[in-house]
């Protein structure tokens, strides 16, 4: 028996049982953190013509923070009278979206879905904290992940109008992926911007018209989202607030991260012609890692959006073919619990900081390798003028 076939025999049972366990056991069991509960309650109020943005935002429980456009798109779940059925359906939709995104990634990287790569990627993804807690907390990020991967795949395939649709649907729910519009902007492709603007605008107009207290979203909810909270927040600002780091130091760190992100994006431009898939996936990962670090809220399970950059390891010229990148991946993907009875302070510090350190290490690793390649022409593939013109 060949090694690839043997790996198929080994990995498929492991992958299938891991998916079943994450969905039917962990996700159905749920957690004290329940993101869907607020969605269901808000969409029920929306459909009943009652105020949607009426929560007490001073509590530490999950809050409903979606714009009226997101409320409009999520409203079908509120139309289901049985909460348990609605939640299970939400879990199924997000599970299907994650699996669909992984399938699209395999096509993007030209990996054979019949090879052992398929169960390996499935197993690896559902092992992560990002996928596991997206399902356990019943969050919509599985759908956002599918929109991200579809956007990258459609950009690569030059199906630019549809790329705009994928981005527009994600932005109508939450603005997480908005910075990725820099990719078609760099390539001077205007078509994706049509769907990316029109879909959120249309759904916002519909949601605004049907939400009785839509004004409170701008008056109360939007300002709240700009505030830095000191719990369940792995951004630089959140970690700094929790540990009492002086604000000027936090601001300086955020500025440095923005600069590092911009420099990495600029250096990656050399790959956009000859190594387009590498450029798309690595640039998107660098941008999102930077956003998670500098935004007012960065939660560990956002790291699902970094799966494409880590899968770029299969590509020639990949910037994650090194141990620091995968140490970083451990930081933002692991399910390991780091609090320690023997070393409580350091264990608690690692437990709170490992996603932040992972994002920071990934960004730093990519930047250092780009600079290293740039300093030696033998390590750096310049873009020929003819190729650039093409």
From TrEMBL:
Subcellular location, record wording: Cell membrane
Keyword annotations of the record: Cell membrane, Membrane, Transferase, Transmembrane, Transmembrane helix
UniProt entry tagged with the keyword Cytoplasm: no
Membrane topology according to the record: Multi-pass membrane protein
Molecular function terms, GO-annotated: hexosyltransferase activity
Ranges that cross the membrane: 6-25, 85-105, 135-155, 161-186, 193-211, 249-269, 276-294, 352-372
Record's signal peptide: none
Main localization, broad class: membrane
GO CC, one annotated term: plasma membrane
Family statement drawn from the similarity comment of this UniProt entry: Belongs to the glycosyltransferase 87 family.
Identification of the protein by name: Arabinofuranan 3-O-arabinosyltransferase
Species name: Dietzia psychralcaliphila
Species lineage: Bacteria, Bacillati, Actinomycetota, Actinomycetes, Mycobacteriales
């Amino acid at each position: 028996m060949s090694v690839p076939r043997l790996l198929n025999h080994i990995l498929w049972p492991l992958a299938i049982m891991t998916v079943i366990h994450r969905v039917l056991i962990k996700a159905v069991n749920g957690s004290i953190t329940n993101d869907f509960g607020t969605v269901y309650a808000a969409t029920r109020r929306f459909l009943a013509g009652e105020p949607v943005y009426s929560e007490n935002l001073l509590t530490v429980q999950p809050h409903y923070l979606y714009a009226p456009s997101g409320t409009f798109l999520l409203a079908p779940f509120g139309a289901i009278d049985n909460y348990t059925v609605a939640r299970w359906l939400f879990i199924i939709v997000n599970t299907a979206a994650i699996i669909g995104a992984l399938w699209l990634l395999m096509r993007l990287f030209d990996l054979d879905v019949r090879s052992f790569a398929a169960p390996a990627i499935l197993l690896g993804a559902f092992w992560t904290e990002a996928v596991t807690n997206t399902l356990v907390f019943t969050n919509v990020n599985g759908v956002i992940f599918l929109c991200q991967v579809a956007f990258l795949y459609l950009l690569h395939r030059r199906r630019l109008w549809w790329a705009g649709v994928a981005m527009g649907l994600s932005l109508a729910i939450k603005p997480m992926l908005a910075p990725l519009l820099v990719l078609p902007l760099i390539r001077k492709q205007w078509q994706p911007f049509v769907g990316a603007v029109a879909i959120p605008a249309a759904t916002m107009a519909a949601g605004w018209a049907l939400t009785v207290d839509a004004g409170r979203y701008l008056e109360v909810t939007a300002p709240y989202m700009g505030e830095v909270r000191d719990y369940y927040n792995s951004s630089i600002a959140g970690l700094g607030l929790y540990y009492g780091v002086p604000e000027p130091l936090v601001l300086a760190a955020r500025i440095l991260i923005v600069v590092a992100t911009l420099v990495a994006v600029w250096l990656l431009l050399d790959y956009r012609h000859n190594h387009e898939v590498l450029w798309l996936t690595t640039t998107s990962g660098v941008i999102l890692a930077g956003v998670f670090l500098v935004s007012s809220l960065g939660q560990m399970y956002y790291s699902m959006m970094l799966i494409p950059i880590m899968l770029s390891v299969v590509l020639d010229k990949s910037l994650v073919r090194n141990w620091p990148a995968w140490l970083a991946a451990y930081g933002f993907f692991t399910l390991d619990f780091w609090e320690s009875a023997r070393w409580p302070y350091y264990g608690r510090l690692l437990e709170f900081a490992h996603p932040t350190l992972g994002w920071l290490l990934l960004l730093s690793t990519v930047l250092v390798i780009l600079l290293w390649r740039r300093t030696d022409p033998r390590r750096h593939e310049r873009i020929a003028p003819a190729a650039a013109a093409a």
